[in-house]
Amino acid sequence: MSIWSRNDDKLFENALVLYPENIADRFQLIADYVPGKSIDDIMAHYDDLVHDVFEIDSGRIEFPGYTDDDSGRVELEGHSGRVELEGDSGRVSAERKKGTPWTEEEHRLFLIGLEKYGKGDWRSISRNVVVSRTPTQVASHAQKYFIRQQAMKKERKRSSIHDITTAVDTNTVPPQSSLQNQRGTQNFNFAQ
Fold first, then answer.
1. Domain, as residue range, for 125
2. pLDDT tens, 124-182?
3. Which of 15, 53, 64, 99 could connect to 30 by a Cys-Cys bridge, CB 3.0–4.6 Å?
4. Residue 88 near residue 82 (C-beta atoms within 8 A)
5. Is pTM, for the whole model, over 0.85?
6. How many domains does the chain have?
7. Residues 127 and 111 occupy one common structural domain
8. Do 56 and 77 lie in a common domain?
């Protein structure tokens, strides 16, 4: 394993931008761009980078607080928005993107994936079933779904995408309005 200086890292990052994934001999070109590094060094460093980004995106490790040697400011783009780190002051300003609501079809696919892979295997559900969402998005959706399921057992709320299930239930009672909840309601049986 070779030792990487901050300058080596900067050259490596620049080369990643100069030579995108679709270029043949990409790692050879990057190795030529970063003096003293072999293709094996470049490939190992790239694998480490991909692993680190995955760990950060999945929330397993915290976002590192690097600073740029020149200006004391670094901007990094990620799935959750732009984060700007300023020098050694520890100040962090974040601009968070709003999420895209899940469609009924994505939710139905989520339920199929949940049935097939089980609770907690968000990566498999994302890769194989709800391919339009990242594992982090699937996990977040699952958390909201399970909270909704618990709340539905206690009290009816307004309808939501999280009410959709794969099971056919002939005794479902539609959600009650807040006025009905305040006055008390009669029990209706909508079974056919």
1. 104-167
2. 999 999 988 888 889 889 998 888 888 777 776 667 777 777 765 555 555 554 444 44
3. 15
4. no
5. no
6. 3
7. yes
8. no
